[in-house]
Inverse folding.
């Protein structure tokens, strides 16, 4: 059961494995599973391109023995996600990757011209720290997704375990460089965890 307490007009989650500082995120990871140190070559391209930026809410979560989902919302209490993806990585593997302190996911899709907005694409080839993992698939929120996100509506920042679901929620800088490139970067005041998501499209 999730309990909450006030923090600056919002609330933060209070549960058995609650993490109140990003510096303790690695301790949560140790509860759950190879860390690689490769670099995503597109990073400099994204950060140096002229792009529009905004701030959004991002949540990654999953059952200990299940796969991870990524949910991007305009704000923590939004009812309609900008994007909900099922990632090709088990929760316990992601937890081990987090212990390295730097995680960069890249999602690549190849489509025909005029195929629609970038984040509307249904499937992506997925990479983690330069290593190909498989495919990420866009999906609609299930009842379980909706219930979890409703529990966390007033949470701005939090990481922990609730009912066997490991979660991490934070605010992300969104950089929209073009119709074919988008990226999200965790805003971490402690600078202890780097977490970024890059979306790239090329045409067939």
């Amino acid at each position: 059961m999730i309990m909450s307490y006030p923090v600056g007009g919002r609330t933060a989650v209070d549960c058995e494995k609650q993490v109140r500082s990003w510096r303790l995120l690695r301790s949560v990871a140790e509860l759950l599973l190879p860390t690689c140190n490769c670099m995503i070559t597109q990073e400099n391209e994204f950060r140096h391109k002229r792009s529009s930026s905004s701030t959004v809410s991002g949540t990654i979560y999953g059952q200990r023995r299940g796969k991870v989902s990524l949910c991007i919302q305009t704000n923590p209490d939004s009812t309609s996600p900008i994007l909900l993806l099922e990632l090709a990585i088990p929760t316990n593997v992601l937890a081990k990757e987090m212990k390295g302190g730097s995680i960069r996911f890249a999602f690549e899709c190849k489509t025909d011209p005029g195929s629609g907005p970038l984040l509307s694409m249904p499937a992506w080839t997925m990479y983690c720290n330069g290593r190909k993992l498989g495919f990420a698939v866009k999906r609609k929120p299930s009842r379980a997704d909706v219930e979890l996100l409703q529990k966390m509506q007033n949470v701005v920042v939090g990481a922990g375990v609730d009912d066997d679901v490991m979660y991490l929620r934070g605010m992300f800088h969104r950089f929209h460089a073009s119709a074919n490139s988008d990226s999200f970067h965790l805003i971490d005041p402690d600078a202890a965890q780097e977490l970024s998501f890059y979306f790239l499209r090329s045409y067939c």
About this structure: Confidence is low (pLDDT under 50) at residues 1-50. Residues 21-203 form one domain. The helical segments are 25-31, 43-48, 91-98, 143-151.
